[in-house]
Specification:
Elements: H1 5-23, E1 29-32, E2 40-43, H2 62-71, E3 73-79, H3 83-94, E4 99-102, E5 118-119, H4 123-131, H5 135-154, E6 159-168, H6 173-188, E7 197-200, H7 201-207, E8 218-227, H8 229-242, E9 246-248, E10 251-260, E11 266-275, E12 281-291, H9 297-304, E13 312-322, E14 332-335, E15 344-349, E16 352-356, E17 360-361, H10 372-385, E18 399-408, E19 424-427, E20 432-436, H11 443-457, H12 484-492, H13 496-506, H14 510-514, H15 539-547, H16 553-560, H17 563-566, H18 568-586, H19 590-606, H20 610-618, H21 626-639, E21 646-647, H22 649-658, H23 665-673, E22 683-684, H24 685-697, H25 704-724
Parallel strand pairs: 3-4, 3-12, 4-9, 6-14, 12-20
Antiparallel strand pairs: 1-2, 5-8, 6-8, 7-8, 10-11, 11-12, 13-16, 13-17, 13-18, 14-15, 15-16, 19-20, 21-22
Helix pairs in contact: 1-5, 3-8, 3-11, 4-5, 12-13, 15-18, 18-19, 21-24, 21-25
């Protein structure tokens, strides 16, 4: 059994540090020269300095990054800011190559932020490797288990071991699964996180009280890693720029540039790009271009050669977010055999429960959206494993999202029809290096292989021929400790849950975030105004996100904070605050603030499940009895006192005022919007009935509007009772 991740990390760092000093000069790193605001330069670091020393210089601004794109001649230009592209940038920069990275959207905007949040070797892959005597599949698992351990070492603040339960409902499966999971531990060897174990039915119910008891005979518990995928992706990109890489998000590649070499052969020499924030176009010159664009692999390949054959076979995976009471805080669940043969994970994450994933062929899209069929499939599988006492309701889906897996055919093989089981690296005739396929966990080894091949294919001269990233600490990991949050509480006066969130999200950079926090005006907490009462996100994080290249409100609610993935309604409620803070940072006009709000609302509706949630509610048949309809008429009329036929904002305000409650206008708008299906600022009776029917069948979990109507009707009934008694004793 392995020791703590911190112990492993220290041991690994000693080895890495010694190796680097022995080799000689370390990788190039550039720093912004405060005396010359118009240029950045590469400075060779002294031989004795370690790559794992915590950088102290501030990050270059986005404008400085863009200026560097046009003023430098790069060894490597990487297209794509997902996990693989950012990994390539870090690998190249740490070897001493002049490196640039451009991403058309935000870092991790695509598949890399829409994963199952697991860092794993793949239990299912190992099963296939053993049963099929497949050596290639075995090596894939072995590599992934090494990378799993490494990722937990280099970003201990962002990643952690998670126990996952595999419930067993047939006696013969208990030894079968136990042997399989023990093989998983065995293949991991010294990289095993914690040893797996078998437990009785009683112990399984104790650890996972929501589990279905009927026919349960026991369970196997094993360990994999879990992380905040979007933050991990950003940390990789930030670490790359700390080591000298120029990185620019919201920078779209328009075309690839070519020139003839000394032999008259065309070779790629850079790209024409456009800053999507300002619309400015620019030329980026580079000796080598790496295509790491995931599902968009073929679009870049066709820029290199219009007639090249497409190799990407995209597949869409949907996940849903459920309330925290659907799973224990520290135990996940694996359904190894769903009704259609797929695997479903059911995991605690960021204070909520996520479930997924599905696997459906799809078209490549910049805005993949979840479907009702996929959501229903996941809910049904969840229901199959939970106690009947736990009512699995459609209305409990807080968020739903889709990610596109970039499955690829290997163009290096003659049989290009078969899907590659692992990643592929391909070099075109013009020198375009394409890295595609693979999975989140193995991003580092994929990147290392891609840069190895790029060095040879494009005749590059790195300071270090070998990859330096195994054991290289990521942004925030250098001085992080598990008890760091206590210092944040004591030094700044933050609430404990906020301090824990900051420490586990930003690591040792959490102090820089806390310094930006606003005073609350309360005795406690002293600083840190929450963006939403249900979550530990604070105002300072929005300001800090702007320093970490967040350019849009979607960048913040979707990736810098994970609010959109955790609860779309809460994200919508926090949106105006987020936009106002960003407007202060970027000096946005009122028109730009409106544009940002509209774009973020569209994102929540289309990509995070609001539209499909609303459609599900609207399709609910109004199957109410006569007595239920009669009761709802009374409740509706208790607010619609002047018999207009609808309930307005003023009706809500008057009802609350009568109860002695003064609720801010923006909250009243939120309550009204929960039910105002046609967005006309008023709730008609048919809309109210639709909501009550949806609540009855579970399509809506709860509603503040329904609660207000019920309270108003109760107040009216009490008033009538007192009036009839004459008000006396």
């Amino acid at each position: 059994m392995a020791g703590s991740s911190r112990t492993r990390s220290v041991a690994r760092l000693v080895g890495v540090g010694a190796g680097l000093v022995g080799v000689g000069a370390l990788a190039a790193s550039y720093f912004y020269d405060d005396d010359q605001h118009t240029k950045r330069q590469y400075i060779r670091v002294a031989a004795a300095e370690n790559l794992n020393v915590r950088p102290t210089k501030p990050l270059p601004t986005r404008d400085q990054q863009l200026k560097s794109l046009t003023s430098e001649y790069f060894d490597v230009l990487i297209i794509g800011g997902g996990a693989t592209g950012s990994g390539c940038a870090l690998d190249a920069a740490s070897r001493g190559l002049k490196t640039a990275l451009v991403e058309m959207d935000d870092f991790s905007a695509g598949t890399s932020s829409r994963s199952t949040k697991l860092i794993h070797g793949g239990v299912r892959y190992l099963q296939k490797a053993i049963l099929g005597l497949d050596l290639e599949q075995y090596r894939m698992v072995k590599e992934a288990l090494h990378e799993r351990a490494n990722l937990l070492d280099i970003a201990p603040h962002l990643s952690y071991p998670l126990p996952i339960m595999l419930p067993v409902y047939k006696w013969w499966q208990l030894p079968y699964f136990w042997v399989g999971i023990k093989m998983y531990d065995l293949v991991a060897g010294k990289k095993c996180l914690k040893s797996s174990y078998a437990i009785s039915k009683e112990r399984a119910i104790e650890l996972f009280p929501m589990l279905k008891k009927d026919k349960l005979v026991g369970a196997i518990v094993y360990y994999d890693g879990q992380h905040n995928d979007a933050r991990m992706n950003l940390s990789i990109a930030l670490t790359a720029t700390r080591l000298g890489a120029t990185i620019a998000n919201h920078t779209r590649v328009l075309s690839l540039l070519k020139e003839k070499d000394e032999n008259g052969k065309e070779r790629l020499c850079g790209a024409r790009v456009r800053d999507e924030v300002t619309g400015k176009e620019m030329t980026v010159k580079a000796k080598c271009v790496v295509n790491a664009t995931g599902p968009f692999t073929d679009s870049i390949r066709k820029m290199d050669n219009q007639v090249t054959k497409e190799i990407c076979a995209p597949s869409m995976g949907v996940h849903i977010t459920l309330p925290d009471y659907y799973s224990p805080e520290q135990m996940g669940l694996l359904d190894p055999n769903t009704s259609d043969g797929r695997v479903i994970f059911f995991l605690p994450w960021e204070g909520r429960t996520i479930a997924g994933t599905t696997d459906t062929p799809c078209n490549v899209s910049h805005s993949p959206a979840p479907t009702e069929d996929d959501i229903q499939f996941i809910l049904q599988e969840v229901k199959n494993y939970l106690n009947p006492d736990v009512e699995v309701r459609r209305g409990d889906v807080l968020s739903a999202w889709a990610g596109i897996r970039p499955l690829v055919q290997d163009p290096n093989k003659t049989d290009t029809q078969s899907i590659a089981r692992n990643h592929i690296v391909h070099v075109s005739e013009n020198g375009l290096v394409t890295i595609a396929g693979g999975k989140w966990t193995t991003y580092r080894s994929m990147a290392a292989e891609a840069i190895d091949i790029a060095i040879k294919a494009c005749d590059l001269s790195p300071v270090h021929q070998e990859s330096q990233t195994d054991g290289l600490l990521l942004e925030g990991a250098h001085t992080w400790t598990p008890t760091m949050f206590i210092r944040l509480v004591q030094d700044f006066g933050l609430e404990s849950d906020v301090a824990k969130h900051l420490a586990h999200t930003y690591g040792d950079r959490a102090f820089s975030v806390a310094k930006l926090a606003s005073l609350t005006g309360k005795r406690w907490p002293i600083v840190g105004r929450r963006l939403h009462s249900e979550f530990p996100y604070i105002d300072a994080e929005v300001r800090y996100a702007c320093r970490e290249y967040a350019a849009t409100a979607v960048d913040v609610i979707g990736r810098r904070l994970r609010l959109a993935f955790l609860n779309t309604q809460a994200a919508g409620e926090a949106l105006s605050t987020v936009v106002n803070i960003m407007a202060e940072e970027y000096r946005w006009s009122e028109a730009e603030k409106k544009r940002q709000l509209e774009a973020a609302v569209k994102y929540l509706q289309q990509e995070m499940g609001q539209n499909v949630n609303r459609a599900s509610r609207e399709k609910t048949p109004v199957s109410l009895s006569k007595s239920e309809i009669s009761e709802n008429v009374k409740r509706f009329n208790s607010l619609d006192t002047d018999k207009k036929g609808y309930i307005s904002l003023n009706d809500l305000r008057a009802s609350l005022k009568a109860r002695g409650q003064d609720v801010p206008g923006e909250i009243l708008h939120e309550i009204l919007n929960e039910i105002d299906l046609n967005h006309n600022g008023q709730v008609e009776f048919d809309e109210y009935l639709q909501m009550m029917a949806a609540i009855k069948v579970g399509s809506i979990s709860h509603s503040r509007f329904a609660q207000l109507v019920e309270m108003a009707e109760e107040d009216q009934r009490k008033k009538i009772t007192v009036d009839r008694s004459g008000g006396g004793l």
